[in-house]
Amino acid sequence: MARKHPKHGPYPEDAQDEDDAPAPAVPCWLCGRPLGKSIVLHHPVPKSRGGRDTVPMHPICQQTLIANFTNSEMQRHGMDVEGLLANPNVRKFVDWVAKKEPDFTATITRKQR
User: Which residue ranges does the record annotate as region Disordered (predicted)?
Assistant: First the structure.
């Protein structure tokens, strides 16, 4: 049987009224564009190499990193974005995607083996 009154009191309706301002847009770790609806928490140092920290990224940006770097290379660069951007393929991608909207998706070239 349903309760007539809530067990722990009413829901705090006043808290929703105070937060009318939208949350600030978080930038992507790689390209710096604001994040959209799709967010990926990426491990700059792969978990298989002992990485624990995560950074927010666009899915397309994460796919680009995976296609261009091995886990060993990602471990060497660590949290250094400038080192990753020194790769000509990644720099070309970031320059291209800078003009796109935050939720932009496209197919990425596969990893070259």
Answer: 1-23
pLDDT digits (tens, 9 = 90+) for 41-63: 999 999 999 889 999 999 999 99
Chain Cα centroid distance, residue 101: 15
3-class secondary structure, 42: strand
Half-sphere exposure of 36 (CA within 13 A, CB side): 12
H helix or E strand, kind and range, residue 41: strand 40-42
Question: SS3 for 108?
Answer: coil
Q: How many CB atoms lie within 10 A of CB 57?
A: 23
88: Cβ–Cβ under 8 A, 6 or more apart, which residues? none
Structure tokens given for 104: 């932009």
